[in-house]
Amino acid sequence: MSGFLDRIKQLLKSDDKPPVAESPYADFNKLRLPSDRGQLCNAPFRSIRFEQRGVARTCCFNRQVVLGRYPQQSLSEIWNSDEANSIRQRIKDNDLSYGCQLCAKQLDRGEFETVKLRQYDGLKFNENGYPSMLDFSIHNTCNLECVMCHGEFSSSIRKNREKLPEIPLVYDKEFVAQLEEFIPHAQQFVFAGGEPFLIELYYDIWEAINRLNPTNVHIVTNGTILNNRVKSILENGKYHITHSIESLDKTNYEMIRKNAGLDRVLENMQYFMEYCKKQGTEYAINLCPIQQNWKEVPGFVSFCNEKKIRIYILSVVYPPTASLMSMPSEKLEEIEAFYSTFSFPESSETEKHNASNFKDLLSRVKGWRTLAVNKETRGVSAADSVAESDRVDIQKVFDLISSNIQEYGNENSEISEEIISATLAKLNKLGQNYKGQKVTKGKLMEIESLAGDVMIGAINGSTEKEFDLVVRDYFLD
Fold first, then answer.
1. With contact defined as beta carbons under 8 Å apart, do 294 and 179 qualify?
2. Measured between alpha carbons, how far is 351 from 309 in angstroms, rounded to an integer?
3. What does the mean pLDDT of the chain come to?
4. Where is 364: in which H helix or E strand?
5. Per-residue pLDDT at 64
6. What is the pLDDT of residues 168-223, one digit of tens each?
7. Rounded CA gap, 430 and 464, in Å?
8. In angstroms, rounded to a whole number, what is the distance separating the alpha carbons of residues 312 and 314?
9. What angle do CA 353, 357, 363 make, to 5 degrees?
């Protein structure tokens, strides 16, 4: 790691100083701890994320940059790759154009408290050059078919809704063996899925963590799996549990989270809460406000305040049948008016956190309503403000998607020719509706990073009306 350490120390030679005053993000930086101000985002310097198909990234929000791939490269080679050092230099220069547009938009809107890159504040730089955070989302194994999810994160949806074969798990025992070099130096571990407690290789990694560095492990779970094996792993380490749940109403919960039962989930919730209290770790809730539960969000905040639980209110961007941002302006105005009638106490740190998350959601709804009004009244997108030189014909998007689908079909014999042909025919038909429209080059790059089977699943799993919403919301903006 010595070569890497020399290079990264050069990048971080001003790590204890804020970016220059003329930085466009100077106001945001004032809100951060001095130890976090050395660069706008700490993720490329202190975190590595392992995703499906062996892909390694800096974080889950930058879909454009791939640091490397396992098993083609070792973990050390990935962490010290040219691509990794390139994104580090860009971040050091306050350049968020290389896949970091989501955080750039949040900063431009003033979402300083909830901007995604804040998740990497608080991580210390390891003087030995190893990452401080190891983040895992290595497979989509999941027992649920949630309405706000898709096959990339649920094997059940991929099989039953999208009619696609399983995603192969490329990680293996050798991966776990290589991790043993990194585990002792990490401050934080994060595990997501799919459903983490159904991913077999995670148990090997957890056992290694419990043996080498048994602290600060975060698991995001749907709360349906709790057995003696899970309890044994938890009891031998210090695990933080984040529980994803969208409703406390039995009928609505079981409609949203297909294949789950609320009664059992609430029993498991009680165990996880008691475990975290005993271990001195955090039990938190992830809540996705969607079309099926938006009226329940204020009640959820009150529930979490009562139980002294932190709530993290997320955004769903796909599928459009669940996403709030796909709703018409009239409905978003109703949601905005409803949320505006609520205020929450801020006496404790937990209450302040929860109130801030709710305020941020209200801000997002207002922004979505403004975008919806623009689309409905002018029939144009936010991309109209982008220079013509930075825009391309939308046909390039459809050509790129078609090429990726064909390439994926050629490389994966388990995908039948009938599925590929039907998908391409549907794509071609849908693409006829958008002739002459343009997208930004950044959108083209984002779409280029999507795997072929993700595109197949999105096309096959959408009606023509739903696909129209996808294009409107995710291609044209």
1. no
2. 9
3. 87
4. helix 349-378
5. 80
6. 899 999 999 999 999 999 999 999 999 999 999 999 999 999 999 999 999 999 99
7. 7
8. 6
9. 145
Which residue, among 313, 293, 307, has the nearest Cα to 359 in the 3D structure? 313
Find all residues with CB under 8 Å of 341, minimum gap 6, and list them: none
**What are residue 145's DSSP bridge partners?**
258
441-471 in b/e form (b: 16+ CB < 10 A) is ebbbbbbebeebbbbbbbbbbbeeeebebbb
Beta-bridged to residue 51, according to DSSP, are 137
Asked whether the beta carbons of 79 and 9 are under 8 A apart, the reply is no
Instruction: Please count the CA atoms within 13 angstroms of the CA of 53 that sit on its side-chain side.
Output: 16
pTM for the structure as a whole? 0.81
Query: At how many degrees (to 10) do helices 329-340 and 349-378 cross?
Result: 160
Of the chain, the percentage scoring pLDDT greater than 70 comes to 88
pLDDT in tens, 83-127: 999 999 999 888 998 888 888 888 888 888 778 899 899 888 888
Question: Quick one: tokens of 15?
Answer: 């790590």
∠ at Cα 261 (310, 152), nearest 5°? Answer: 75
- For residue 136, what are its two tokens? 């895992």
Q: What does the block give as tokens for 397? A: 């998007």
Q: Phi and psi for 224 in degrees, rounded to 5? A: -95, -15
Q: Tell me, what DSSP letter sits at residue 475?
A: I
Report d(CA 388, CA 186) in Å as an integer.
45
> Using one digit for the tens of pLDDT, what is the confidence trace for 394-443?
888 888 888 888 887 887 776 778 888 888 888 888 777 777 777 776 66
Cβ-proximal residues to 238 (8 Å cutoff; 6+ apart), any chain: 214, 215, 216, 217, 279, 280, 281
Are 296 and 252 within 8 A, CB to CB? yes
